[in-house]
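Try it yourself: sequence plus protoporphyrin IX containing FE, in.
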Amino acid sequence: MNMTVTDEIIAVTLIWLFVFVYAIAAAIDFGAGFWSFFYRNRKKNNMSRIANRYLSPSWELTNTFIVLVVVGLVSFFPGVTRVLGAVLLVPFSIGVLLLAVRSAFLVYSHSVDRYKKTLILISGLTGIFIPALLILVLPITYGDMIDTSGGVERLLWGELLASSSTYAYIAFAVTSTLFLSSLLLSDYAHVSEDHEAYRVYRRDALILGPITLLSSVAVVVTMQFDAPWMYENLFANQSWILASVVAFALGYWAVYVKKPRLATLAVVTQYLLAATGYGRAHLPYLVYPGVTIESGFTAESTFHALFISYLVGFAILTPGFLYFWKLFMTDRQYLKKR
Amino acid sequence: MDQVVIARSLFGTTMGFHIIFATLGVGIPLMILFAEVMKLQTKDPDYTTMAMRWTKGFAVLLGVGIPTGTIAAVQLSLLWPEFMEVVGKVIALPFQIEIFAFLLEALFMSIYVYAYDRLSPTMRIVSVALVAFGAVLSAVLITNVHAFEATPEGFRMVNGEVVDVRPWDAFFNRSFPVTATHVMVSAWMTGAFTIASIAAWKMLRMKKKDMRLYAFHRKAMMLGLVVGGVFSILTAFNGHDSAQHLYHDQPEKLAAAEWLFETETYAPLLIGGTLDRETLEVKNAIHIPWALSFLSGNRFDTEVRGLNTWPRDEWPPLFIHTLFNGMVLIGGLLTAMSVVGFGWKRILKRDVFPSWMMWGFVTAGPLAMLAIEFGWIFSCTGRQPWIIYRIMRTADATTSATNLGMLFVLFTAIYVFLCVSVVAVLRYYFNRHPLEKELADL
Ligand code: HDD
Ligand code: HEM
Ligand code: HEM
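Structure, out:
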């Protein structure tokens, strides 16, 4: 579509940015939960500890971003709440229930040593199911799974479960979660100079990279059948997708030659490029074909007030974020402790 | 069951559960802050131990408070889509700014907890002050939306369409200041009394009097009683303002709270009693003559509208009378309690409290929490049948999605489970890390 910069475009870009930040942060968060579970029985090395140490200070912040996504969507595009509210009620309710169980157990496991293993099991497994559930919003907004007869929207569960897109997206969500988290944890272990943990996470990243790429191809292939309108749009935006493949190649190469920081940055860039291409292809629809960014948009004056509140809010918080980063991500003394 | 009834029950249950942790999330950081400040003032290391133990407990509570809040936010959008459409257009600001409050709280909470030993004493106080500030800010902002539901301003409805939106007028709606203050001071009061309750319980359960431990708990209890006492007085005064705001802005809620059916001057305040639903006759209530008129307008001859002046389908449910009574009664009781405790220690200079008094203190925290529940249910249920007062009915705002019954069961089960597990975890942790050991390790 023709991209003149309107308020609607700014708003949807912001939302997309929040979704992106949440997706990356949550993938790493959920993945770290999973790895801490997966490697729970290794005595000799510290994979689990590295994952946990990363998780402890960060899960609360990550959680805030899902709230930001929900609140942002409702305040920028209130016109979309009715449809999405109706069709996402059940999948999202189950999602937040799992999230509640997971967060609680994550916190509990710091206090109750005796049950640590059970607790890690629960937070690890739920961490994999949650991305699988949340990603369903993407195939659902294709539109074919929404029944609009009688003036009320309903999710067609049969269609959802029968669609190959559903499974492609789920595979994509799960593999991305694991790939991104193993990459970041390898970097984190590298900075912490925990060589054994670094070796294992690097190996995991090497295995998962190609699988993730494959699942994203599956998403595009199934899209061709389930959302031809979007598939066509994606072609119009193919330069973004191609650039993202290049970034992936760079990242994968960096893992291979043991430059974990570069690898992480390249892969995050890969997702950013792909998400941009995907997002542009999705426009102008929020939910195909009924709700577009124009039809769902908030009141003009509210948008302007919100926009200013973002500028002021992030300006005030930035020093806090920097301080946080300094304390937890770059303090070598802290990272190496124990 | 009726769709609307299930949706309301589901949302009410979620909020009733979240508010327990949310209130403690506002109240306890303030107590931690006070403990850190006391440490700086008195150089008494006991206060550091207190701050650390309360922080540990608070971190566990966050593990339930944050996810239930996330559930609340998601449910609000999922269950009341028509309402959220208006919210999104008109009163999105507080929700959005609240996110920054959450971020502030989360950032500095992590810093305070996970970097405690790397912070200077001043940075500790700054961090925990920012945690407390972020928490209370988020409470004030969410209350802003609640206040907007009672006194909607800053837009017009024309043929079901929202027009002429002025977001800042909506934000600074009439009842925001008084409501937000009430929520704030009552949460601080509840946090303080909760601390006092726990300390009193520990003192009572002490098998042989170890004066060292007794003194530790007594310091915690006194801090709780003093802070709680101050805020309970503020809560009562501000509650009076809240009632006057009802008189002006939601008179039928006040009338239902006082079971006033006929419009009267010199109207009485009713305590307790039973109501015959057919004849609308009140029996066995204690009447305080003229008090309702005085409460409403500061004059005994103030005219107070009775419920009969509204059509029946606009009446709030009448059981809110009991909730209102309960809240006010508890407020009075708790103020009295802290005055007694303070007088005993500081004026009569006694160091050991009689056990009847201690048992009283033990109930303070749970009672305050009960008052919070009463107050909220009174306020939200008393707004019925409106979701936005005189603009949108709750029934017209409800989702069309089915399956709500199943979700209600699922969510309730999770809340029960979280409730049991959080208590178990707290008990386990503090049994494993008794105060004796921590004081000995110093
Ligand atoms: C520790 C808790 C606590 C205590 C002791 C009190 N309150 Fe309260 N009250 C609340 C906690 C609370 C609350 C839970 O925070 C509410 C619910 C909604 C709100 O705005 O605050 C509330 C609401 C609320 C309302 C309804 C406002 C509305 O619906 O818009 C009124 C009129 C009062 N209160 C009045 C009082 C009075 C006269 C008290 C006398 C001591 C009192 N409250 C004590
Ligand atoms: C946290 C403490 C709160 C509690 C315990 C609480 C309790 C309740 C209850 C019991 C109901 C059901 C009312 C009924 O059907 O009789 C309800 C409804 C509702 N409350 Fe609250 N509430 C709280 C805070 C809030 C806040 C801060 C908001 C504003 C954002 C809010 C907005 C609503 C809405 C939109 C409904 C549904 C529509 C309605 O029934 O009017 N509540 N709440
Ligand atoms: C007046 C009643 C409320 C108060 C005082 C309150 C206060 C708080 C506090 C202090 C927290 C931080 C967590 C904690 O300390 O346990 C919190 C979390 C949260 N609350 Fe509430 N809340 C209230 C009602 C609501 C309502 C109605 C919603 C939904 C719209 C909501 C949404 C949230 C969310 C999303 C979080 C999690 C934030 C995060 O991810 O960090 N709250 N609340």
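One thing you can check immediately is this: The pocket of protoporphyrin IX containing FE (ligand 3) is lined by residues A 60, 63-64, 67; B 15, 18-19, 21-23, 25-26, 61-62, 65-66, 69-70, 72-73, 76, 102, 106, 135, 138-139, 142-143, 183, 187 (CB under 6 Å).
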